[in-house]
Design brief:
Length: about 500
């Protein structure tokens, strides 16, 4: 039996899986985010992350058919910045990944200090809101008491694994986003020129994702129900775990994650770097990824549903009502076009100042047109990210789509039609399954990375709609032009 738990932006999920990849039980808990000021997005590690993990572990280990747990894998949103004392107590709420854009000044200062060429050489990336390093610098500049008191600067799953085992670790796939502190060529920390911002001994020990970090302590066993002494792997962030869960292991395969934000991972046998995209190690030794992300996807869908006054007894009912409304408008939304950049945008623009726009409204337009335009806008944002990866790497061998918005035919259909690429949609519990597989790999219970395909179930394949391709590819060109036209205005208004 293998226990996998994934802490997402708005929900934590867990699964109990046997050696054949059969999910015997699953559990979930909803939670929220805190936005104390504009550009700041946070969560409390104790009351959100640890409380969720403990509750889900208790539920799953009490499942009647559960046998002994052979290993545990945990993933979580990231890269986050969690500052703790020596006893692993958080000193402030965790600063979240790229949706938190507070460190713009620190990005500018670090870029000026080290130079763009050196940052890219060292990190394989430029500094963006997805970089953890500038957020640690922000703590030094804006909250020096916290920065001085911190024994550890880690990320979400690092802290959770430390709570379970007492061992402070981080996987290469996540450390690769702590730019400019991680040297992508050597696979080790490198703080040259930044040693006034961070000491290496305040950063976690780096290891591969499926390496055993330690075993469950007596205190953690009492809190979670996981037996003391159970092996716990180093783990990874939610996106690589999600990629594993849908069988992405080979060169040229891409995972498209349709979550609260969009995230896209292309697996490869060698490191590739490209400006505007994120290069990092993957979870298996000797592999690497080129990744991209959008700032909003499911969050923008929820926002437009709220703005249009749609509600249901559940999220599923609300989104079904939104889709039904949008179906009252044809592809192209009768000329209405939307930028869903409600929290800035990441790939391909890397612009935290970008904001939402609805263009082309006339007196003859309806709520259905606005709904469809916004859903297609989410599709355009995802297509732009996928096309940015393809432009750097050539043709994609395979796309596997995961996440809640894969059940939105307008969003996922727009992506396939604009890109011209089919997408396999898996019927999977998501990243938690990837965590369980990595845990099984860590204790030698499965043959190797490729055996994860035996755990994957494809639900459907989404094909491009040829009849809509001319209209939607034209709209996509206009989507890119709309961003270019409005970006200077947004930068000026948010200055």
């Amino acid at each position: 039996m293998f226990l996998g738990i994934d802490v997402g932006t708005f929900e934590t999920k867990g699964v109990l899986v046997d050696r054949a990849g059969r999910v015997l039980a699953h559990a979930r808990r909803r939670h929220g985010i805190d936005t104390p000021t504009p550009a700041h997005v946070e969560q409390d590690p104790e009351t959100v992350w640890w409380a969720d993990v403990a509750a889900i572990a208790q539920e799953l280990t009490a499942y009647p058919a559960a046998g002994p747990i052979d290993a545990v894998g945990v993933s979580a949103i990231g890269p986050c910045v969690v500052a703790t004392d020596a006893e692993l107590r958080p000193l402030r709420p965790a600063i979240l990944y790229g949706v938190d854009t507070r460190a713009s000044d620190q990005i500018e200062a670090l870029t000026a200090r080290l130079g763009e060429a050196e940052i890219f050489r060292r990190s394989g990336n430029m500094l963006t809101s997805q970089s953890a390093g500038p957020k640690i610098a922000w703590l030094r500049d804006r909250e020096p008491d916290v920065w001085n008191a911190a024994r550890w600067f880690m990320t979400s799953q690092s802290w959770l694994v430390a709570r379970l085992t007492g061992e402070v670790t981080i996987d290469h796939a996540t450390a690769g986003y702590f730019h400019p502190f991680y040297d992508i060529a050597t696979g080790d920390w490198n703080v040259d020129g930044c040693d006034d911002i961070i000491d290496i001994d305040r950063l976690p020990r780096i290891a591969d994702s499926s390496t055993i970090a330690g075993t469950v302590t007596t205190a953690a066993a009492e809190r979670t129900g996981i037996p003391a002494g159970t092996p716990v792997i180093v783990g990874t962030t939610d996106s690589p775990a999600e990629a594993v869960s849908c069988g992405i292991v080979d060169e040229g395969e891409l995972m498209a994650m349709y979550g609260s934000s969009g995230y896209f991972i292309r697996a490869g046998d060698s490191l590739r770097t490209a400006h505007g995209l994120w290069a990092a190690p993957f979870v298996f030794p000797g592999t690497a990824v080129l990744a991209a992300g959008t700032s909003t996807a499911g969050t923008a869908t929820r926002w437009i549903a709220d703005v249009l006054g749609l509600s249901g007894a559940s999220d599923e009912e609300t989104f079904a009502t939104l889709i039904a409304l949008a179906d009252g408008s044809p592809p192209g939304a009768r000329g209405v076009l939307a930028l869903p950049h409600l929290a800035g945008e990441r790939t391909p623009f890397q612009d935290p100042t970008s904001r939402g726009v609805v263009m082309g409204l006339g007196l003859d337009h309806t709520r259905a047109d606005v709904a469809r335009a916004f859903l297609e806008g989410v599709g355009h944002s995802i297509a732009a990210a996928i096309l940015a990866i393809q432009s750097q790497c050539g043709s994609l061998k395979r796309i596997v789509a995961v996440g809640g918005a894969t059940r939105n035919p307008i969003v996922i259909g727009t992506v396939s039609t604009v890109t011209g690429l089919p997408q396999e949609v898996t019927d999977s519990p998501g990243a938690a399954l990837g965590d369980a597989f990595l845990a099984a790999l860590g204790v030698g219970a499965v043959e190797g990375p490729s055996s994860v395909r035996d755990w994957v179930r494809v639900r459907q394949v989404i094909h491009p709609v040829d009849a809509d391709r001319e209209r939607l590819t034209g709209d996509h060109a206009d989507y890119l032009a709309l961003y270019a036209a409005t970006a200077p205005l947004h930068r000026r208004r948010t200055a």
